[in-house]
Amino acid sequence: MRRVLALSAAALVLGSVAHAQEVFETTQADFRVATVAEGLEFPWGIAFLPDGAMLVSEREGRLRYVDENGLRDTVISGLPEDLVVERQGGLLGLALHPEFEDNRLVYFAYSAGTAAANHTALGRGRLNEDATALTDVEELFQVNFDKERGFHFGGRVQFLADGTLMLTLGDGGLHRNESQNLANHLGTIVRLNDDGSVPFDNPFVTSRGAQPEIFSYGHRNVQGIAINPETGSVWTHEHGARGGDEINIVASGANYGWPAVTYGINYNGSPISDATGGEGFEEPIWYWNPSIAPSGMAFYEGDAFPGWQGDVFVGALAGSMLVRYEVDGDRVIGEEQLLTEAGHRIRDVQTGPDGMIYILTDDLDGLVLRLEPVTP
Question: How much is the pTM?
Fold first, then answer.
């Protein structure tokens, strides 16, 4: 259980030595929260550079650089001209190529098109040596369905051990039934080679009428993805409607049910489906009811918090908290809610190269925060 002992305005000081005097006690570790950077406009994703600095995407369509001095004033240039900022859309998730130190390739998800006809896309560019610009920028993939309005883009990027990558997608908001239609990418997770081409062993490569990039389908809006270091499995979480947020283990060719089966209901209280499961649909390993609006996901593998080793952390938007799940293999066996009184909508969570946990707050004046251990 968490207990607040003291509070200090020092939590709002920029820089790597900024520490809050508020101590959070939990069942496995005690920690303080330090502010690393402020002044970000709805930050969305983090990618750590080899030297410990980080790239941070702002949903408003900017790529930013943060180091021990905080947020650099200048914006990293070179993003695609067709990037559109519309409601939930903009610049989304980030990932570095596994061989970034040699090729300096940065991958980014974004919404492209116009407010009236938009889709999720994946781009990549080469970060120059002083991290001021992306060069050789190219689009690698785009969803083959132009939708109206700016809802449910998904947008997380995850490289896999075999060098391929996954891009999580959403159902487009008004097009939820398309999640069961393999003819388009809405409501799916796609798997690509690092150049955007289709891996030969994707599950629907030889299926007539199906999009070959699709790896799994029947998703609503996937905004978290991480690899379980113990089992190697890919974990994701997705937003439900009113209730029915889920954690799933992603399998090749599997159908996760949306909207045919769900633990949620419509926002107006009417049913979406009378079934929560059924033959041919994968069951979630965890679901939330009421919804917490999960966003961001990371397994902890650092040394700073030995008691958290192998646990998975999930940010919550509607829930305004960070949630730690104790994991045994591919099962969730315990839950602990952190930072519940801080009032932050948490958009992303990542383990830094220093072993600390970093989170982004979803706000017009967004923060990069760092959880640091308190030793006896």
Answer: 0.94
